[in-house]
Amino acid sequence: MPTLSQTQLLARVGITLFERGWLSANNVLIRGTTGPSALVDSGYCSHAEQTLALVRGALGAQPLDLLLNTHLHSDHCGGNAALQQHYSSLRTLIPPGQAAHVATWNPEALSYAATGQECPRFDVDGLLQPGDRLRLGDWNWEVHGAKGHDPHSIVLYQRDHSVLLSADALWQNGFGVVFPELEGVSAFMEVGDTLDLIEALSPRVVIPGHGSAFSDVTSALEKSRSRLARFQQAPDAHLRHALKVLIKFRLLDWQRVGREQLLLWALNTPYLRRHMPSDETQCREWLDHLLNELMESRALYFDKDTVVNC
């Protein structure tokens, strides 16, 4: 039997990949004739109308049966509410650990307040427990725990075709910010454990939470392990990287923002404020250092007193 190309393999599994910009996580639509249709992750809230348009364009008059979230960061579940409103029979499944916070809608416990981000309230119908198997389209998928980037994250694996939906546990050139570390909770070892899990699964194709699908999994794992080793040796480098990621993410949404407004947002964002100087008069200088580093990496530029996304 001839070897299938990456595109052919994903088509065989019934996958349509909506590759999004970095403000929104990728959306993965899975369809077939024998099982429910499913969308994995729904993007950020300011892109919710676009997410809905992409799904409706692909499904036409067909319903969307399931919505799965790999984890509950705002760029992965910000479109949940819009999809639930449009598809009245949609069932939403999330990883365990935060269901109670969703039920009572606690933005602090769900990290939206801590990161200075937004996520409209949504409902949950069930859990994605590690070890579960569920039918999506024509194939069975395995649920695996993937701690590190987020302590409650999962990945999804289709064993018959060796396709992995890796969320933010593995990208082609790295992995997502290790958010527990921002709270002083050690999680670098868990990142390594998840990379070991992915290597053991030995996927032929990986669809990451951000960026294009890829087949050179060995290279991606090597890059991620090298990155992890650097962060383990220099945790402050990871912290600085994470703070810049939070600023860049907000700028991706705003596109343009005045320096004073950005400073006010930073002062009211716990993940940032926790690491700012105690003397508020020094906070502006602290923020300027991060902005200058982002400018040097061509992530933004200045237009007088306005910070502009690149």
What does it look like?
- The protein has helices at 6-13, 48-59, 74-77, 80-86, 99-104, 112-115, 179-182, 188-201, 217-233, 235-254, 259-267, 270-273, 283-296, and strands spanning 15-18, 27-30, 38-40, 66-68, 91-94, 126-127, 133-136, 139-145, 154-158, 163-167, 205-208, 256-258, 300-303, 306-309.
- The protein is an alpha/beta fold.
- The strands form three sheets. The chain has a six-stranded mixed sheet.
- β13 (300-303) and β14 form a beta hairpin.
- The longest helix is centred in the last third of the chain and has 20 residues, at 235-254.
CA radius of gyration: 20 Å
- Fraction in beta strands: 15-25%
Distance between the amino and carboxyl termini: 46 Å
For the sheet with most strands, the description reads: 6 strands, mixed
Uncertain stretches of 5 or more adjacent residues? none
Mean pLDDT: 96
Strand order of the largest sheet: 1-2-3-4-5-6
Instruction: State the helical fraction.
Output: 25-40%
